[in-house]
Design goal:
By secondary structure, the chain is an alpha+beta fold. The protein is built from three helices and 13 strands; from the N terminus they run αβββββββββββββαα. Strands 1, 2, 3, 4, 5, 6, 7, 8, 9, 10, 11, 12 and 13 form a 13-stranded antiparallel sheet that branches. About 40% of the residues are buried.
Length: about 270
Amino acid sequence: MKPMFLKQDQWMKSHRISAALVALAAATSGLHAAVVFSEPFDYTPGIDGLNGQGRGTGLSGTWTNGGYDIVAPGLTYAGLITAGNATAHNGGQTFRHLTGPAPASGSIYLSFLLNQESANFANFTLFGSGSELLSFGATWSGSGPSSTYSMYISGVTGPAAGYHDSGVGVTIGTTQFLVLELDYSTPDETGLHFYLNPAVSGTAPDQGDAILSLTATHTVVFDEIRLELNSGTIDELRGATTYAGITGVPEPGVAITSLLGGLFLLRRRSRET
């Protein structure tokens, strides 16, 4: 049998594919490096199905406290890559530790998908060394659950302490994309910027587009997360050092650099023939 050789056009096609794969791998590796933690709730559906589960990325131990069901299918949001199922509850809290303290430099973006059945508690809370730091979503208002998207800052004094109302009423029955940016660019302060349904892209939203912005006069360092949910569904908990890390969309600069790298490889290989 004679050995088989690729024709020139077949060879070029194979190297175009290789270049594209190189570009894709470079962009994807950048996204993975940015991820601090993620929890897609990829568990078997069932009543009280979250209690004791321990998968996810950047998280240690298992979810504690019962009552959180695993439901299928998971929540979806236009443009956002999702996987697994979701968790639903009608009252209560559940906790999970990170593998270590989240980095406190640059910015960290936190996000989750939320579909509320009523205007009740539905929030994502950060803890540091066992102390509650802050919540965002539909939080405690000081007398009960907030009917608006809000933040509650715990364990500090000053203007950032307590309940903060965005003035935007919670949406019932439709999945929302909630994002909180922790901005560490100023020493001994943390800028807190709460976005509702920002564009799913590789470019971070403008802080001026936040529905609520605060400045905490201390550095927020967290190593534990909590869900508080009364009547609703939560999915896709994510934390990353870039906005692209939570959306899964490469930043424009990363995508262009990766593409140029692939084109350079293609051109170089072409010259070698």
